[in-house]
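Weekly structure sync, notes
Attendees: PL (lead), two postdocs, one rotation student
Agenda item 3: pending single-chain targets
PL asked that the sequence for the first pending target be pasted directly into the notes so everyone works from the same version. It is reproduced below exactly as submitted, 147 residues in total.
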Amino acid sequence: MKKVTVKIKSSFVDWILSDYSHDDLIEMLGGEETKEDVALSVAGMFPNEYIENYKEIEPFIDKANKGKDFIHGIQDGWEVEFVQEDTMPTLKTFTCEINLQFKEYTLVSHTKKEYIKDVKKLFLDDYGIKLEDDEISNIRIIKEEKV
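Predicted structure, written out during the meeting:
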């Protein structure tokens, strides 16, 4: 049988020990045990997100734990290794589309072109958002009056 080493991310220790009070932690760490040892002894489950090499060990997981978001306990014969995670947070760049519909705040205009110009000015003046003409769509007349 192949030797299986489960690589547990260091953040698991903080996560599992966060359920315990300061006094409980002092008592548990009073002996020679490391906080990693204490975390292993009190953990009932190991969420997959904290297992760095989950894909590597997945074929060796028993049937009762397959397909779950966690492993219930470390199986007999498996070794555990704690791995230090990169402490620098990863910055992500996002983009999105926002679809807004004005219901309470309406603008009165003579033409669609004038309405688009008014909406663009409103967004720029009130919110600092510059809109392009093609970003304003689905324009409907909700009320018409002769002036």
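Discussion points:
- Strands lie at 5-9, 46-47, 70-71, 79-83.
- The radius of gyration is 29 Å.
Action: rotation student to compare against the earlier draft before next sync.
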